[in-house]
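Standup notes
- HV: blocked on the assembly model, inputs below
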Amino acid sequence: MAHGHDDHHHGPAKGITRWLYTTNHKDIGSMYLWFSFAMFLMGGVFALVIRAELFQPGLQFVEPNFFNQMTTMHGLVMVFGAVMPAFVGLANWMIPLMIGAPDMALPRMNNWSFWILPFAFAMLASTLFMDSGAPNFGWTFYAPLSTTYAPSSVTFFIFAVHIMGASSIMGSINIIATIINMRAPGMTLMKMPMFVWTWLITAYLLIAVMPVLAGVVTMMLFDIHFGTSFFSAAGGGDPVLFQHVFWFFGHPEVYIMILPAFGIVSEIIPTFARKHLFGYDSMVYAVASIAFLSFIVWAHHMFTTGMPLAGELFFMYATMLIAVPTGVKVFNWITTMFKGSISFETPMLFSIAFVVLFTMGGFTGLMLAIAPADFQYHDTYFVVAHFHYVLVPGAVFSIMAAAYYWLPKWTGHMYDEALGKLHFWLSFVGINILFFPQHFLGLAGMPRRIPDYSLQFADFNMISSIGAFIFGFSQLLFLFIVVKTVMGGKKATAAVWDNPEGLEWTVDSPAPYHTFSTPPLVK
Amino acid sequence: MNDAPSHNSSSEQAAGTKGLVGKLALVVIGMFGFGFALVPIYEVFCEWTGLNGKTGGRVEYSATQEIAKERLVTVQFTASNNAGMSWTFEPMVHQVEVHPGELTEIRYRARNPTMGRMVGQAVPSVSPLKAADYLRKTECFCFTQQVLEGGEAIEMPVLFYVDPALPADVTKLTLSYTLFDVTKNFEVSAPLVSEL
Amino acid sequence: MLLKNKLWLGLMTAVLALASTELFAAWDLNMMQGITEISRETYRLHMLIFGICVVIGVGVYGVLAYSLIKYRKSKGAVPATFHHNTKVEMVWTILPFIILIGMAIPSTRVLTQIYDSSESELDILVTGYQWRWQYRYLTEEGEEVSFFSNLATPDEQIYNVAAKGENYLLEVDQPLVIPANRKVRFLLTSADVIHSWWVPEFAVKKDAIPGFVNESWVIAEQTGTFRGQCTELCGQEHGFMPIVVEVVEQAEFDTWLAGKQADAAAIAELTNQEFTLEQLVEQGRTVYNTYCVACHQANGQGLPPAFPALTGSAVATGPIEGHANTVINGVPGTAMAAYRNQLNPIDMAAVVTFERNGLGNAVGDMITPAEILELQAAAE
């Protein structure tokens, strides 16, 4: 449209060098998204190994030590390889388009922050083939299991985490610089799309806590190789200190994985409800308060470590408070749909499922916040069900919703709506069969991270495993749909949807290689 | 927050970006440092609240220390070995009754049954947590490392008193020590049996 | 709308009623109520918060479902244009806050109760090991009753060769025994990594942390057998270190404790008796399958490089004193623990003899419990 002629000077280079040397935010966004999907499949295979072993009581397929490697690698790959890079990919693609910027603020660093990621994960994955085996101490790697008692591959794990951290930090700096400095004239902060807002706050969270993660793995490295005693009681350290530092990173980290999801559904729901987002200002304040609260609730992961009563009470109250801004967001989304004119395209289906199932995860989160009750829930499948409800139908569904929503803008083709709906329903049914029974398992007393269980847990585990395979294999359908859309399909218009809001819909579909070389004017 | 939208000329924008990136990089470095700063912060916080059950360091016993004659508190002693530690290690009395404020001495016994020199470090812990701050030690073998030649045995004293400010509902304290083998952090003159 | 609300209310009450029936417990769908005041309080708190979540959920999902059905484009719905309403937004910020205060009050009360460990009548030191629990009864005279509690489920059941028993993976060789209706205080620590000691029916879950002693307590109101598991990932056999607690009447407990004390004395005496190689190998096999098999494997091949093979190894086929010393004192800096604090001299002699004359080794020599004692004292 108005900017369709902007790409007259040069298009993408040809061949592999296009991807190796690219500084184009769209290319880099695409690479992030493909990489994260590859990691999603890899982490998914690890998950299916876990669910296959847990299909029946007894040890059938893997040894306990390998099982522990699978739970560890599944967590690490999904968190750092699938969810986070997917959001960074979406940010790369969409933030410049949404704020009317020609590219990211630091395009060369952008290239670098992507290209170090494959090396980090190659290093992490290579540990699976080492004599000592891969890391087997859980993605939370509590000391001293991850230090004194760790397999020798822990050093590779530490370096891989360092590289992932560097990638995230560079990505975040880039996103902040882009949002602060490159907005089109007239786009004040309070006019920014919600996705941009949530990413701005997420990026600040990332630069605040990824260095702390780097710090904690560095301390581990020193404990293991240089004789320090940060986490060893023998030398005056404290294993519980590890958990404090880890969760000081870890709790903001879980919000890093959900805030951009909030932004995505806040974009999609108004489009398909054909109504403005309800309570934009309160949405922004709610995201900011959640981000703030994330720094003062970390020890709710540690209720059973034996904190003093006053500490338990403080972290319990602070954690309960998170329900307030989270509630505001859910109420706003529902009120956006209330008295709208709703249609049910695939992105909307994923977004509605997000609201419903994320809220479920929120409820169980509130239950877990209650310290005395947490003594019964802690480290059981109830917790597993809780965080998978917020991360899979939460973060992952939002990413899929985003993919369907913006795929026509990226490729210029409409995806196959019937297949998209099939993918949604398979995922939705699969996910609930997979994770809902895990609530019951946890309440009945099944601990997490065990390769074998007593007989009373057999039925629900079998149901859960069936759901896992349904959900897992449905994602191949997603791959097929995306490839099919890239290859061809019905031409998409610039607006794609029915009068959606946002600058990204003012450029052609597919979005030209260079957009907004001349900034648009936002009124 | 509603700052003016910026879409200035590209050179101004580049300068703005440079300054912002510099600031953000400082935040990153600062937070990396903060991760390490959490270590001493935690120490201080623990000492202040008794958070991790650690008793404080050496204190001086004042001759004018008030003694709560009307109150009796039971102090239990336990000893544990970390898995790699082969010494025998036990308290010589298992519990005593003391008046808060009164200085008491008890002893632990340790023996190195191996043929080589070993170095041990005992780590104290007090239960209940809220009492940790009130158990004051004027002397403790846990303040230093113990070096025992092969076959050598030692009796190790602990001198302590219970602060009379101990909350009224605490009637029993447990002082536990865990003994760790820290030999590998030191040069060992004689080879260890287990290395044979 | 009003009628609809009433309908929802009715439905919700039905759900709550169902949730609290015995049926749920029988299906293992819900938290167990347990056998202590604390566990029942915890259960009630859990049901209260769950109930509140159900009520809120019915409201939220109700409005959502209503909107999705009523305001469909396919039914010709025309979108409204409002996007802001300060009053409504204030209400749904403040109302949840008030509900949270309502939740915080009973939670604080129960938590305070749990933290009151004073006036205990029996103290037990629980130590987590990779991968077993040790229980030591603390008495004024010391700890003469002390034992390890190991998984009793045979490998054949775990590897699906034999049918699984009723208490598969939740059975141990020696359960913890405590008296009913007495305040029993647990002091929890670990000898290696972090473990966590959980018995759901007591609502007791506390981490066992090396170098740090945690505490918890229970007043069991019913006699019986109660089972739990380790709930903190502690390595390879994390799923195989269950907890079994027998709650018995005080009189029975006293008898049991006296019996245990007599057992300890008997072992000391037995140590000086004569054993044949066959006797030691036979007993050593049992000890091996309990303490050594996880790392060194049933066939003695180990899991190199962390856990070396015993079959044909320099230690297990070399001088017997060196072999015995390895078992007694462990190997610093490796996963090999010092078993002097875990096994009695008879078991140590038996397992050393077994490792030399089983697992494909045939050295033909043996070591007696008395010789083990001598070795332990040798350096003096």
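- HV (later): unblocked. The interface with chain B takes residues 116-120, 123, 125, 127, 129-130, 136, 138-143, 187, 189, 191-192, 210-215, 322, 325-326, 328-333, 337-338, 340-341, 376-380 of chain C (CB under 8 Å). Residues 20-26 of chain C have pLDDT under 50 and may be disordered.
- Next: hand off to the docking folks.
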